[in-house]
Amino acid sequence: xxxxxxxxxxxxxxxxxxxxxxxxxxxxxxxxxxxxxxxxxxxxxxxxxxxxxxxxxxxxxxxxxxxxxxxxxxxxxxxxxxxxxxxxxxxxxxxxxxxxxxxxxxxxxxxxxxxxxxxxxxxxxxxxxxxxxxxxxxxxxxxxxxxxxxxxxxxxxxxxxxxxxxxxxxxxxxxxxxxxxxxxxxxxxxxxxxxxxxxxxxxxxxxxxxxxxxxxxxxxxxxxxxxxxxxxxxxxxxxxxxxxxxxxxxxxxxxxxxxxxxxxxxxxxxxxxxxxxxxxxxxxxxxxxxxxxxxxxxxxxxxxxxxxxxxxxxxxxxxxxxxxxxxxxxxxxxxxxxxxxxxxxxxxxxxxxxxxxxxxxxxxxxxxxxxxxxxxxxxxxxxxxxxxxxxxxxxxxxxxxxxxxxxxxxxxxxxxxxxxxxxxxxxxxxxxxxxxxxxxxxxxxxxxxxxxxxxxxxxxxxxxxxxxxxxxxxxxxxxxxxxxxxxxxxxxxxxxxxxxxxxxxxxxxxxxxxxxxxxxxxxxxxxxxxxxxxxxxxxxxxxxxxxxxxxxxxxxxxxxxxxxxxxxxxxxxxxxxxxxxxxxxxxxxxxxxxxxxxxxxxxxxxxxxxxxxxxxxxxxxxxxxxxxxxxxxxxxxxxx
Length: 640
Description:
Structural class: alpha/beta
Number of helices: 15
Low-confidence stretches: 399-419
CATH class of the largest domain: Mainly Beta
CATH superfamily of the largest domain: Catalase core domain
């Protein structure tokens, strides 16, 4: 027995005596109008707990210190990244494309030492690459790099454990993992200049190239002067691990100023030629199996440079210093992402990718707390559900409803009487005018469409003596196409073109005309056009009525339900809409109003049979909204 409205997967077998009810389709959605954060939604409960506790602990420290937890003070400059005209070993990429040039910002800092640059510490270089658009220059990506080829924690769980453990416990940990001890010591540097150190990203990103290939990538900044080696400023281990503070005090004989690294960087930037770095990438094909992928993402172990060498992709030239105030305002977001340069997702605390996925959320929460900015509801809930008590009164909750209420005029009452009461003319229209328009007019349109083909057939039969049974198929096809064109004309005459976000009263003439056209479309669909669904002609018919469809590689639409509001439908190359799916470009929003919203189906996106898609939904490229599924208003259907 196959249950009613059930959907079975392809190639499945229902054995004798078995019962199957339901659907195995699964989708990932996110409501674009809500306060949910997709990073939190993807986490399992254990992952959320660790992220919440870490965010709460660091938020408390941030509020008390009124500054960053790590890399507290820094020195910054701006300049340009020029991609080389020829790149060897790097496939064609939209961002790192030969010859391109981007504005950049660099912020150098110490990991823990905020008052003395002579203390031996890990040194950092945060790099922001901005768009080459001449007007706005939005950031493309923020990279956080540091000295040393590896990090001391593989997962976010390891990082949390490291923070709460004392020195003795950490030493016991590294005895079981000697490579972690090496990662800690090789990160420390006792250099004379920020500009003479090598900086590594440690953590992988996912690069997608124009040929469709995907590779893991690590980034590196090295001085332009090739004589400056990786070992510059290297610190020899003096024990199992450095002291408890993570930063070794300066030598008593060291007489350099407290902030000599910052002073040196600013002087170099002001000098002719500024500060120059070479921007490098290290690429590795994404492994096929999960365990090998997780090993490749392990940031405690650097990749073999013989197998995966660093490739020079461009030069960075820093020619202008930022003021201290400008430097303090810089906020780097590790979660800046694009299709071409993406973050590797994680849903479990045991995955290597969890450290990058989780830290991006923690960084943003702490930045909002430090700047006393409103916290989204999902972030606030995450922090308040932790084991740490945090006073978030300094950061009110970001609420769209509150801001919209505040925008109301003072004299406008907050409560309105909602009614769907109709006037006498509206009642008369509903009883007589609308039924006439929705029954008689559609058949009159079909009759007019039939008239010319019918005359042609009768003429050929009577005058040319052609057999009628051969002429009837011709009549049927011609009259069908004439009716389809009449439907297109009726769409633009009765309805026109609506805009996303537009609202109209439910008893208005515009809605009456829309319902009349819907009746015409239904009759003509039953008469002829239903049989063309799933073909190129059906897609063309949609486009003539206002749908935005990429015709270079036209999609597949097998549903008259996609034509309820054709101008609200956008289908990119290869998009598919299954049998009897409903694309509702309008919704009743209360107070007697109808609101319209765009529905977008991305490249190779799929909407299954009898699925229902509400206004404002976006089905991302290669995403799948399964059969019988429902995408609510404003949701984004993501690919897994």
